[in-house]
Amino acid sequence: MNLVSKIFKEAIIQKENEYLKKNIKDKWRLNFHIMPPVGWLNDPNGLSYFKGIYNIFFQYSPFETEGGLKFWGHYQTKDLINYKYVGVSIYPDEKYDCHGVYSGSAFIEDDKLYIYYTGNVKLLGKHDYIESGREANTMLTVSEDGINFSEKECLMKMKDYPKDITNHIRDPKVFKYDDIYYMVQGARKYGIDRNNDIGEVLVFSSKDKRKWTHTSTIHTKDIFGYMWECPDLFNLDGQDILITCPQGVKQVESIYENIYLSGYFLINDDYKNKESIEVNNFTVLDRGFDFYAPQTFLDENGNRVIIGWMSVPDTEDIHKNLTVDYGWQHCLTIPRELSFKNGKLYQKPHRNLEKLREKKIFENKYSNNTLSDNLIYNDINSYEVIIDNIKIDNNINNFEILISKGLCAKYKDNKFILEFVGDTGKTIGGGRNKRSAHLEELKNIRIMADTSSLEIFINDGELAFTTRYYPLEYSFKILGEMNITIYKLSSFKFNP
Ligand code: FRU
Question: Minimal CA–CA distance to 408: which of 465, 330, 461?
């Protein structure tokens, strides 16, 4: 640890303790989601199961609630239920990363945790920071215990990337096949002019984890956004899949609704041996308002698990998170198990989270065409709902759930719709309005509801809708024919 990180460390601990001491009565603090101790959180980073412990790092700006200089905050857990806050593990303390320890990944081999990330540097002077003025260094630091990290190594600088790439290249994710290591990075390639820059993913390969060569580029035929962030490439159930976050794709109702997207392409070509891989048919991973920059990892049983950031960049003017007034902002999604079937990715809450079920508070078969009474009572602010055996009468569109006053989820004309309605909707959604997606048939729904977040999984995870919300009261009412079970959920346990 150098002098710069020592100074940062003291200041951060002081800031976190001040926040704790204030003992703010903050009803939006979540019960079973990872939040920043204070200040701002964005992408999950370095997700890994290493020596019997899960590491969940995250983009952390402790000093600024609206985001600023990025550090890697760090939680550890053995079971995804009981957590220890380790503190900041990686600081922007070197000339290669002095303006931010940006996103990256973990790779495990020989009992060592290899952390690859982007060291962000912004040069002084007159720059647009796209074509000039920004350095994105590919960095490595290694740990044997998951807590102490080696001297940082700068593996690639701007001069080592292809010449047709702007200054925007970042977020290395590393994996291995046969005896070769691969790294994917998100990139913004020069277009014919600044308005036509091209998002793509660069694949690098290496024999020793340190010396990397650009060997392949994954791209679309027509431009699909100007920048692709946070790539992740893995094989699941026999299918190669590239997750990435394109920016600059035209928003289309019920298809691409968020300002920046997060989703996946199927790769049906040999990226290990071919220089140019064309992909098409992008599928959005989560159709709600708040999902971005996800990363996957393997859990202790070898299941592919995904965690996302429960927000989208540059949405401050679109919707407001009411937690800002309390000195913090954003959280991660729950860990979700992924599977690939029917040509699609499915996601469902990680099985360990079933341990959060404290007691069953409601179970009934319901068949009525009037709105039910409130099914939640005693001020329960985190709960899980399981709905199945849904019978839809297409003539009267008889399926609706009111998740608190002002927020409605319904199935209508082959669309699943999540909508903040009326004046109450405006307040509790912080400016969010409506999201929808085509759905051939509605079979079942599972909702993980926390104090200020909702994660809705439809048809065993065929669709997901994730959103923050700030309810005036916790209530849950239904209209339609279905079986419904509701559990009160307990909280993650954090060390002091
Ligand atoms: C995605 C992102 C990444 C970058 C990080 C910086 O949200 O922009 O591309 O590494 O956030 O915090």
Answer: 465
User: Is 97 an active-site residue?
Assistant: no
Query: Residue 311 in contact with residue 488, Cβ under 8 Å?
Result: no
- Give the integer Cα–Cα distance in Å for 406 and 428: 7
Instruction: Say what the pLDDT of residue 89 is.
Output: 98
* Cα distance between residue 173 and residue 230, in whole Å: 8
Banded pLDDT at 22 (limits 50, 70, 90): confident
455, 458, 462, 467: CA torsion to nearest 10: -20
pLDDT at 335: 98
- Per-residue burial over 360-396, b if 16 or more Cβ lie within 10 Å, else e, is eeeeeebeeeeebeebbeeebbbbbbbbeebebeeee
Q: Where are the domains of the chain?
A: 356-495
Neighbours of 315 (CB within 10 A): 19
- Out of 2.60.120.560, 3.30.2000.30, 3.20.190.10, 1.10.260.40, the CATH code matching 356-495 is 2.60.120.560
Mutate to test the pocket of ligand 1, among 230, 258, 310, 329 (most ligand atoms within 8 A of CB): 230
Catalytic option among 26, 43, 317, 388: 43
Model confidence pLDDT, tens digit, residues 401-447:
999 999 999 999 999 999 999 999 999 999 999 999 999 999 999 99
In angstroms, the CA 118 to CA 154 distance is 9
Query: What is the 25 CA–ligand 1 centroid distance (Å)?
Result: 31
Nearest CA owner, ligand 1 atom 6: 102
- The separation between CA 378 and the C-alpha centre of its own chain, rounded to angstroms, equals 31
The predicted-structure confidence for 187-226, as pLDDT tens digits, reads as follows 999 999 999 999 999 999 999 999 999 999 999 999 999 9
What six digits make up the tokens of 377?
A: 């009572």
In the structure, which protein residues have their CB atom closer than 6 angstroms to any atom of ligand 1? 42-43, 59, 70, 102-103, 118, 170-171, 229-230, 292-293, 313
